[in-house]
From TrEMBL, chain A:
Residues 1-21 are annotated as: Disordered. It comes from Glutamicibacter protophormiae. The keyword Cell wall biogenesis/degradation does not apply. The chain crosses the membrane at residues 43-61, 99-123, 154-177, 183-203, 215-231, 263-281, 322-347, 367-391, 412-435, 447-474, 481-502, 522-543. The keyword Manganese does not apply. This is ABC-2 type transport system permease protein. Keywords: Membrane, Transmembrane, Transmembrane helix.
UniProtKB/TrEMBL annotation, chain B:
PROSITE patterns: ABC_TRANSPORTER_1, ABC_TRANSPORTER_2. InterPro entries: AAA+_ATPase (IPR003593), ABC_transporter-like_ATP-bd (IPR003439), ABC_transporter-like_CS (IPR017871), ABC_transporter_ATP-binding (IPR050763), P-loop_NTPase (IPR027417). Residues 8-233 form the ABC transporter domain. It comes from Glutamicibacter protophormiae. Pfam families: ABC_tran. This is ABC-2 type transport system ATP-binding protein. The keyword Transport applies. Belongs to the ABC transporter superfamily. It is found in: Cell membrane. Keywords: Antibiotic resistance, ATP-binding, Nucleotide-binding, Transport. One of its GO terms (molecular function) is ATP binding. It is a peripheral membrane protein.
Length: 553, 309
């Protein structure tokens, strides 16, 4: 992997090079040591990625075998499998009449894309992130060759891909799927990873921060995913359009495990990976340490007048997080709504486990909707705690001190953060509930479900109240206390019955206290009590915060 | 608020963190329009004092007044007239340096936009870069530009030059001189003596949360003793009896001692009688005074402590 071999060298240079090689100062010297070092630093991460991804194979295989136990069932499925949704999300169902083909439909895309994410994060972690943190500087000053550490980084990532692919193939073989298909299955997933190592390596040269490198890598995964989705949507039967060849994910799909079992796209995938790594090494020798080839993103030279207010600043700091949570609530609402009907007809009313979740009061559909309302409330609760947690991190980082050293009252500052957490959680509840109803194809009125979700607002507020109390009295433990309280409330509301907690105990926790409409009937009392608790706790916490020392750590 | 009140008036200030006493009897006074140095080794309580003055920490004892008001009760109103530069500047990594300057300077009261542009230029700071990419020095510059572009009457600066290179330190020095010329009051905390000596009219030296010395630099200089090292032909131990010679240390034919400047003529006359072969005399140095307060053992001879100048 040395660079500059194309150039003619003078005899003197040759001599120098030979001498250097003899002394062990080539650009790759120490690549083995570096690889061991990277392995030591990442082995747990690597093991988790490989094992979690590979373990999906037996899990999904079992469930599919149960869903389609007979060849007749699989043939029936093959008739209806080719829908635009399946083509766009997971690829064309070219072998839906076999268990191997069904396995590909259900899990191949997830595994391939997940492995691509894994290598992007891994290459950045041991590449650009190290450089950003100044660790690379330290390494360069040692006896390691110039290309040794980055090469080791790429090699370790490649090893992850190969190990994951091998495990997948072996697990496929272990459930007695066809041998060739099993090997192509593992190879096509490993190949996707290899290709993205090359792309991630280049991203690490372009961006100057690890965030930037990761964002670029993830954007490439997204881009290539959409290219192949478009190609699969424009398929003729189960053959994708030619656009599929513009995406490495498409190349890997075209290996068609358990179908045609093509091997040759693997060569293209591996070549892309190798070419990317070589180019990255080349680029690395032409640039300064810590610099990126892309210019750093600039921003405004001054803040707008709204951003300089307490509320404006808090909103600006939370902007991307707010967008993320709102999108999450919308997507999960749409998802819940669209599966509500199907789920309630799937659930066996006699199954005690199912009963435990959906309750015994109303119809199965209402029970399922009630569960979704609760899920949405849990989402809003997690958002609220994370959002108010920003107040604590402002204090911890010392940025609060600088703001309060200005003419900003403590109450105004904390009030701004609180307002966003309170209103934001309200928006999540309404949005999630409304969209669940809207996507439920008439199973429930959107406004009704929005209201059912909003009934959980006092539960969320009571958790915020406790968080404020902790922030006032024991600021160092705010985060721990808030999440512990949240975790206990979630466990009680979701699994309390399974753990044979008494009804009274469950009713004494925030999410358990609120009537779970439409499965249960509405009543004001628990809402009023929780609201009162929120106010008392919140006021006590706020009052204490006004009187305590502001301390950075 | 009384216009003739001192900018800062602190007496007997005490503050405990759990069992550690950060401050125990700290006195500090800064007159209006004065540039005052606040010197002390790391951990001596400078930042704690400034945080109490900013109403971020509540004192456990003693009194503190700033611009004639109570720093805890009147915090918000007071902060319109005060600008602060912390020792460790933390910025929002996703915002640009320029956005951070806008936010911070608005909090310090009225902003002078023209001055802001000048300062950005002087400190050679690119305000369009994300704060994530700033070095410690650049973060410090952000806080300095924000503080200096405000029209605050009082500047509280907590080791403001700790991340600046020498060139930027010069820019800082001239900015503080300018602020002083405009009649603003400045409290400059530092653990580097030379910085205070360069800029300040008065200095307060603290150690272990206590004020150990304070006054005008000129007066303090006068209080200092001249250091003499001399090699004599006879027995240097005989010098012990000479009036004015103190802290005498002997090694072979060499004697080191300190002398009150007023008694120097008599001492020199006495030395002449011992036929000195070599004599080194160091002028009274404030750094020595400072180092004397730093060192654990106050009896240690000043000459043995040597500061770099
Ligand atoms: N938040 C805190 N918790 C515990 N001890 C502290 C805290 N802040 C400061 N101290 C202690 O108080 C003393 C004075 O610290 P500080 O005011 O930061 O000193 P300086 O600014 O002069 O270096 C030190 O001993 C320090 O360890
Ligand atoms: Mg300090």
């Amino acid at each position: 992997m040395s660079t500059g071999t194309a150039r003619r060298r003078t005899p003197a240079e040759h001599a120098q090079r030979h001498a250097a090689a003899a002394r062990g100062t080539g650009t790759l010297t120490g690549v083995g040591t570096a690889a061991l070092f990277i392995l030591r630093r990442n082995w747990l991460r690597l093991a988790i990625w490989a094992l979690v991804l590979a373990s999906m194979i037996p899990v999904v295989y079992d469930s599919q075998q149960q869903a389609f136990p007979t060849q007749a069932a699989r043939d029936a499925y093959a008739q209806v499998a080719n829908t635009p949704a399946v083509a766009a999300m997971t690829g064309l169902p070219y072998a839906a009449g076999s268990l191997g083909g069904i396995l590909v439909i259900k899990i191949w895309m997830t595994l391939a894309v997940a492995l691509a994410f894994a290598v992007v994060f891994l290459v950045t972690r041991n590449g650009r992130a190290d450089e950003e943190a100044g660790r690379t500087e330290l390494l360069r000053s040692t006896a390691l060759g110039r290309h040794a550490y980055p090469s080791a980084n790429y090699l370790v990532s490649a090893a992850l891909c190969l190990a994951t692919g091998l495990l997948i193939s072996l697990l496929c073989l272990s459930v007695e799927l066809p041998a060739t298909g099993s090997w192509v299955m593992g190879a096509s997933i490993a190949g996707t990873g290899l290709a993205f190592i090359g792309l991630a390596a280049i991203c690490g040269q372009l961006a100057s921060t690890s965030r930037g490198a990761n964002s670029l890598g993830v954007a490439l995964i997204g881009l290539f995913y959409f290219i192949r989705a478009a190609a699969d949507l424009q398929a003729e039967g189960v053959n994708p359009s030619a656009a599929s060849w513009f995406s490495p994910i498409g190349w890997a799909q075209n290996m068609r495990a358990f179908g045609e079992d093509n091997w040759w796209p693997l060569l293209a995938l591996a070549s892309l990976g190798l070419a990317g790594c070589l180019l990255a090494l080349r680029l690395e020798s032409t640039r300064d340490l810590r610099a990126g080839l892309l210019p750093e993103r600039r921003g405004p030279a001054a803040a707008g007048s709204f951003t300089t207010t307490a509320l404006g600043l808090a909103l600006r700091l939370q902007r991307s997080s707010l967008i993320g949570w709102f999108l999450g609530a919308a997507v999960s609402g749409l998802f819940f709504g669209s599966v509500a009907q199907a789920m309630s007809s799937l659930l066996d009313p006699e199954n005690p486990f199912a009963r435990n979740f959906v309750g015994t009061g109303h119809s199965m559909l209402d029970g399922v909707l009630g569960i979704f309302v609760l899920f949405n409330a849990l989402l809003a609760g997690a958002f609220a705690i994370q959002c108010l947690g920003a107040a604590r991190s402002e204090e911890e980082s010392g940025r609060l001190e600088q703001q309060l050293a200005g003419s900003l009252a403590r109450g105004t500052w904390l009030g701004a953060h609180l307002l966003i957490a309170v209103l934001g959680s309200g928006v999540i509840l309404l949005l999630g509930g409304y969209l669940t109803g809207a996507a439920s194809q008439g199973s429930a009125a959107p406004a009704l479900l929005a209201g059912a979700c909003l009934a959980f607002w006092p539960a969320v507020l009571s958790l915020l109240g406790l968080q404020l109390l902790a922030f006032g009295y024991v600021p160092r433990f705010t985060t721990a206390i808030a999440w512990a309280a949240y975790g206990i409330s979630v466990m009680a509301a979701m699994f309390g019955g399974l753990f044979s907690l008494s009804e009274d105990v469950i009713r004494a926790t925030p999410f358990g206290a609120i009537p779970r409409m439409p499965a249960e009937d509405f009543s004001w009392a628990p809402l009023a009590v929780l609201l009162l608790i929120s106010l008392v706790l919140g006021a006590a916490g706020m009052g204490r915060f006004n009187r305590r020392d502001v301390l950075a750590n | 608020m009384a216009s003739n009140a001192p900018a800062i008036e602190v007496s007997g200030l005490a503050k405990n963190f759990g069992r550690t006493a950060a401050l125990s009897g700290l006195d500090l006074r800064v007159e209006t329009g004065q540039v005052a140095g606040f010197l002390g080794p790391n951990g001596s309580g400078k930042s704690t004092t400034i945080r109490i003055l900013l109403g971020l920490l509540k004192a456990d004892g003693g009194t503190a007044r700033m611009l004639g008001a109570d720093p805890w009760q009147d915090a918000v109103a007071l902060h319109r007239r005060v600008a602060y530069v912390p020792g460790e500047v933390n910025l929002w990594p996703n915002l640009t340096g320029g956005q951070a300057i806008s936010i911070l300077s608005k909090l310090h009261g009225e902003v002078d936009e023209r001055r802001r542009a000048e300062l950005l230029d002087l400190f050679d700071l690119d305000p369009t870069k994300k704060a994530r990419s700033y070095s410690k020095g650049n973060r410090q510059k952000v806080a300095l530009v924000a503080a200096l572009s405000s029209r605050a009457e009082l500047l509280l600066l907590d080791e403001p030059t700790s991340g600046l290179d020498p060139l930027m330190e010069q820019v800082f020095t001239s900015c503080i001189r300018e602020a002083a010329a405009q009649g603003r009051s400045v409290l400059l905390s530092s653990h580097i003596f030379a910085e205070v000596e360069k800029l300040c009219e008065t200095v307060t030296i603290i150690r272990d949360g206590r004020t150990v010395e304070s006054g005008r630099l000129a007066e303090l200089r006068h209080l200092q003793r001249t250091q003499v090292t001399v090699e004599v032909a006879g027995n240097p131990a005989e010098l012990a009896g000479v009036p004015g010679i103190e802290e005498l240390q002997l090694s072979g034919a060499t004697a080191s001692f300190s002398v009150d400047p007023d008694l120097l003529p008599g001492v020199l006359a006495a030395l002449a009688a011992h036929s000195p072969r070599n004599l080194v005399s160091a002028p009274p140095s404030l750094e020595d005074l400072f180092l004397r307060h730093y060192s654990e053992d106050p009896a240690l001879p000043v000459s043995a402590r040597g500061g770099e100048r």
